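Obj.: predict assembly geometry.
Materials: sequence records (below).
Method: joint structure prediction, all chains together.
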Amino acid sequence: MILIGSNEFTRIKDSLPPGVNLLAVSKGHSHESIRKIFGYGQLDFGESRLQEAISKKIDLHDLKQLRWHFVGRLQKNKVRGVIREFDYIHSVDSLSLIERISRISQEENKTPKIFLQVKLKDDPNKGGFIKQDLMSNWSNITSLKNINLMGLMTIPPITLNPQQTNDLFFECRNFANHLGLKDCSMGMSNDYQEAVQAGSTWIRLGFLLFGNRQS
Ligand SMILES: *Cc1c(COP(=O)(O)O)cnc(C)c1O
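Observations (raw structure tokens):
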């Protein structure tokens, strides 16, 4: 497991077009590693488990500038904790979940930044809205209180070839445009350049920055 050096980090950052944000996905990595990447100027970090994030935030409490993004499968009983601890949620994958987030956000007096996870191809391993469901519930979703709707998030099924992955990124971008949403959270270590080409505004990099995961 090798953490990226500052020159290589800067090279990746500088290769991104204006308007493309970098999320450093730190799940499975130590708070020391996060602190090092913060030292390169990185402020946005992604985690997929609430408890793991809470313990890292305690170790990093002196870094008040950090912005935390939840990227994992969000269980109903974790919604309140995630709303308290995170600024962004990239993985909102059902109508009942976003309704619950809206209700609890009002109680907590928060307005989280939300990405709706979409499933553009069948994938038994992933959750997500299918297009039709998102369209038919659109007026309902956009009228929910205490939700700052940023855009769409997608993860291509691992079975796709590079061309199909590309097509899926473009499809996500087009769908976001159709809905009037600015942001697309798409692209990970292995495919972020293709995602950027297709119009991603948030790439989510894990092992490319942190090396291989320890847990
Ligand atoms: C782990 C994770 C990433 C980072 O993936 P890498 O392949 O390590 O870059 C990005 N997005 C989500 C939702 C993840 O869970």
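Conclusions so far: The chain has a mean pLDDT of 96.
To do: check interface contacts against the pulldown list.
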